[in-house]
From TrEMBL:
Hydrolase recorded as keyword: yes
GO molecular function term, any single one: carboxylic ester hydrolase activity
Keywords, sorted A to Z: Disulfide bond, Hydrolase, Membrane, Serine esterase, Transmembrane, Transmembrane helix
Classification via InterPro entries: AB_hydrolase_fold, Cutinase/axe
Listed transmembrane segments: 20-44
Protein name per the record: Cutinase family protein
Family: Belongs to the cutinase family.
Keyword Cell inner membrane among record annotations: no
Highest taxon of the lineage: Bacteria
PANTHER family according to UniProt: CUTINASE 4, CUTINASE RV1984C-RELATED-RELATED
Region (Disordered): 50-69
Biased composition (Pro residues): 50-60
Amino acid sequence: MSPRRDQYGARRPARRRGRLRVLGYAAAGCVLFVVAAVVAWYIAAGRLKPPGPTPPPGPGRPTAQPADCPDVQMLVIPGTWESSATDDPHNPTANPISLMLGVSRPVQQQFPDQRVDVYTVPYVAQFSNPIAFPPDGQQSYNNSRSQGTQRAIDELQQMSKHCPLTNYVLAGFSQGAVIAGDIAARIGAGQGPVAADQVLGVTLIADGRRDVGPGQGNPVGAALPGSGAEVSLRGLTVPGITMTGPRPGGFGALADRTNTICAPGDMICDAPRQALNPVNMIPSLNELIHSAGNPVHAKYASFVVDDNGTTATQWTAQWAAGLIDGAPHPKHS
């Protein structure tokens, strides 16, 4: 084989050919590295993991329950960046300005532990930006939401097994409202960890799956025409973010006991329908991610929901206290 020559007929130096090979190998290596990084990103971001089927409540109930059982358990689920997987569920301190502390603390102060167990679900409560570079180091929405859902269901199951006569109040904010609403929908459909007739009520503040229509709960304050971001972005799936749309069938048997609170202009719960278009994926994701920190979404502690000047957190605390005050007093063995 004759040696390679350049455009002027001169022989091409072997050193140059070797350098080109090295550059080619380096380029191929970079491509493989990028592909591996993307695959690792997809795996780490995780898919949304719906909880498995929960066993139906056993037939009949006893006439009394153990002495250490509360009459009511209030399950509180904080929003994004307002909890931690290692937080103390009975004395949460992960975020001292967590919105749901404005609900849980007044209830804890009003009632003794024997009357109500206020349990704040500890979970990672993060929402990573999948298009951030470099990565922001947070857990994905799918991983966070899956963990929060499973931990809440596990707690309800354990309480129900040990305390079969205890009743329940559920409340959540933002990502926590999505989780609480999903669990309420399962209970309302007869597929939850506790029986529907043991749930005294549910309140969801800034629910990302908020919808309007039959079975979708009762709006507190003005009824808004928009919907949750997950409804507007239904069907959008990117690494770590699955927009699940509205809840099929709404809240079922709990529809008349479920309340929704949403401030006008809060894109998490009051997004114009189809405004967040999955076709325009990157702008839609930016809009969704930045909505979690917008001024409207962050000010439910001052958002007034009635003519008496009651704020969203005050209303929810008063609502919960009223349910607890009027709840049955089960016998204890």
